[in-house]
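[job 4471] stage=fold_predict status=RUNNING
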Amino acid sequence: MANSERRNQLLPPTKVKWKGNSKSTVERGCIVSSQQCEDKFNDLNRKYMRLNEYLEEKLHLRTEVANTNTDAEVHPTERLELNKMKLENEQLAFELKCLETSAARN
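[job 4471] inference complete, writing structure tokens
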């Protein structure tokens, strides 16, 4: 049994996975450490989760607005809450766009 095989048996399975990913990228000409692979994956996963949350909130907001037939039926405090939710969704979308733009530059 080679030394590298022994080391891989001692490492947790996730570390072995990132080490394998790093090795395959080095073979293709990109020098990337296993920690960089793991960090990139975690960052992408975090962005994916945020985007899913945003889309779910937006869908929920659309159904709420569709369920209210006219503005006359909506209580003024409810209308304020709906407007507040719309503004928060727009701000979140803007922040996500900024994150994506900065990630694309790096």
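[job 4471] summary: DSSP finds four helices and no strands in the chain.
[job 4471] exit 0
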